[in-house]
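Aim 2 progress update. The chain analyzed this quarter is reproduced below.
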Amino acid sequence: MEDENNLDALIQFAFLNHLPDALNVLRRAERQGREALKRRLGQDCLDDGSECVGNFYTMIVTRPYMRVLQAQVRLYFENKQYQESADTIVEMLRLCPGDNMGQRTWLSSILLLCNRPGNTLSFCQKWLAPDRPSVFPRGGVTFEPPSSVCFKPEEEERISKYGNGAMAYNAAVSAFKVFGDCDVARQYLRIAAKVNPIILVKILANIDKPRGFNNMPRTLNGSEDAQDYLFLTQDVWMADDVWTWANSTAEAKNSVLKPCANSECGAVETKVAQFKRCAACKQVAYCSQACQKNGWKAHKPRCQEYQQIKSTIRAVYAGRAPPADAMPTMSADIVNGGVALQTHIDFN
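Predicted structure tokens:
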């Protein structure tokens, strides 16, 4: 445990301990990691203005230390030390503005739990902007005053296709908290409902908050992302004023009402989550067992394709060979300033 190269072992040991002892283990790992980095990269490697700060993603030697900080974020959250969790993410983004540890969306949720809706909205607006740079200095945590200006229609359409669901939902609820029921708050909720409708469905249907994070591999804005977001943030949405506002925003609510997937039926939900979803893919809904039976032949190819994609992702994530009939698949990692690609299934 004293070996400076053993930070990952300390992380594992921390998660075997109960809180708050686990956090004491991680603080020790942080101290060891800082000293190790100073010996290897120079005494100023953690100081603003050094060649290292802002470029940690290019330096493999920094990754164990960043994993320690990431573990602190998680355990501070679980111990309800939300301000400490937010401060740790801010430090991670200072060191690595490109966020290769995936803490950016966490920060917007944690800021809400810290009762900082203005900072939340400012941060989300930066990262949702359609013309934003790929990286902001310090990860975009300078927290300028938020804007009440809506996106243009073409900008809204683009964000609705390619935006981050967690950011869009947090922009919506923080805009409501800062500006009240207004055009920009409703626009963000409309965008969020399109980007990841699963989240709004579970909120408006009053489905119980998840008991934990989803540790399965994922696609962007899928069901796994929805579970993680709701575990972090659902309590914010279930406040009476917030839930009532979301439920009364007709355009967003109507967008998550499902039609019956049987093309011969035409029924549409009149309340959220009224119809049962396909148990295999959960992508379509049916108003009755009869409609599910009648619609299966048309739905089967799409359902099987979706399941194949999920099986391929899970196999790659677990280091197993993907299914023989899987689609072309590659994974990527950032190493020494470049991108290392690994082909799992080629195009032949």
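The radius of gyration is 22 Å. The longest strand covers residues 338-345. These observations will guide the mutagenesis experiments scheduled for the next reporting period.
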